[in-house]
Amino acid sequence: MTDAELARAIAEKAAEQGGTVYFVGGCVRDRLLGLENKDIDIEVHGIPAEALEQLLSELGACMKIGKSFGIYGLKGHALDIALPRTERRTGVGHRDFAVTSDPFLGTYEAAKRRDFTMNALMQNVLTGEIIDHFGGRQDLQDGVLRHVDDVTFTEDPLRVLRAAQFAARFQFSVAAETVELCRRIDLSALSRERVMLEMEKALLRAEKPSLFFGELRTMGQLGHWFPEVQALIGLPQNQIHHQEGDTWTHTMLVLDEAAKRRDKVRYPLGFLLAALCHDFGKAVCTTEIDGVIHSYGHETAGLPLVQQFLERITTETKLIQYVLNMTELHMQPNIMAAARSRLKSTNKLLDRAVEPFDLIQLSVCDGLGKLPPCGETESFLMQRYEQFTAIMARPYVMGKDLIAAGLQPGVQFSEILSYAHKLRLAGIEKENALRQSLAYARKMRKENPDAAT
């Protein structure tokens, strides 16, 4: 039985007891937009909690996901089954709410607690009738994101980020009155996990993730969680290479270019964050010399800012290291492509990258995210990437090869392996590289006979 079939089975049993079951939330919204949504939520009206639990137990193993506020599930199904409820704020945090379930609350009051009109829509599971108390259907047609209720909306600071995230994903405009409410909400009590989750949805699901940050800018809400992004606003660039405008504009263009390629890179979330962070360093090293703007060394100057930003929103070490690595190296591929650098040089660069393919894609996005766009480097860089991967797939000199040739592990052993690795990057095949490495070891021993190898 699918979740949709299960929802109907619950609705039929509920109807026998005088209850009504509605699809609620995103599944109704997405159906009206013609979008796929595998997550189905239903709300059961007119049946007390005990009766609902008995009803559900007749259909499977009932799980009390949140019995204190009336949320249930059935084992083996992702369907969320809830009673109507009210929420009252008890503190400043996102989770500081007292929740009270009430099966006889009514559809108007149940929908009133929702964040946006498009998410307050309900659909009768059996009849298909749409219940729209707050004009959500018209807002969907008009492409407008509008809050439901002034009081309930401002009680949850996460809704500011949700507004920006939904605006980006659906490319909706945010109603002026909703923007005004968002301006007045304090985001400082939010947890980093919740901030990261909303940003991640925008980065990985929006066609233009730049709209997420653009909406937060309009709301005046970049400052607390995204000050490094805010610092890019109005930051000048060299107009010869960047006719698109300030560093903010360039970064947003790069971010949207990166979104076009996220399905083919190795680490999509890290890749989008690298696109966002790649020019943070310009905020601390942009100078004007003889009327010309320069940002020399911004790729390394920005690393402390990137780390500071990422550690504010995540504890994931792998993600942080990936973005730092991509940021530090992002200038080099295009520079090498322009200079038509030797294979050995591009191999060394790609060997430094945690994800060589992703580095090339980021560099290409950096070139495309400006006016005039520059994408001519991609064919050269991809050719070099293919050569690099072919070389790295060959057999190569390992420690056991040196030992088999008579060398003993010692203080100079790692240096010999490092030399062998350089030969590998130069494209020298294993047999020849081993001979040269052994010759290098003999030279080292001759120069320093007291050092063990």
From TrEMBL:
Residues 21-146 form the Poly A polymerase head domain. The keyword Zinc does not apply. Coiled coil: none annotated. GO terms for molecular function: ATP binding; metal ion binding; nucleotidyltransferase activity; RNA binding. Keywords: ATP-binding, Magnesium, Metal-binding, Nucleotide-binding, Nucleotidyltransferase, RNA-binding, Transferase, tRNA processing. The keyword Repeat does not apply. It comes from the Bacteria. InterPro entries: NT_sf, PolA_pol_head_dom, tRNA_CCA-adding_enzyme. GO terms for biological process: tRNA processing. SUPFAM superfamilies: Nucleotidyltransferase (SSF81301), Poly A polymerase C-terminal region-like (SSF81891). Belongs to the tRNA nucleotidyltransferase/poly(A) polymerase family. PANTHER family: MULTIFUNCTIONAL CCA PROTEIN. This is Putative multifunctional tRNA nucleotidyl transferase/2'3'-cyclic phosphodiesterase/2'nucleotidase/phosphatase. It comes from Ruminococcus callidus ATCC 27760. The lineage of its organism: Bacteria, Bacillati, Bacillota, Clostridia, Eubacteriales.
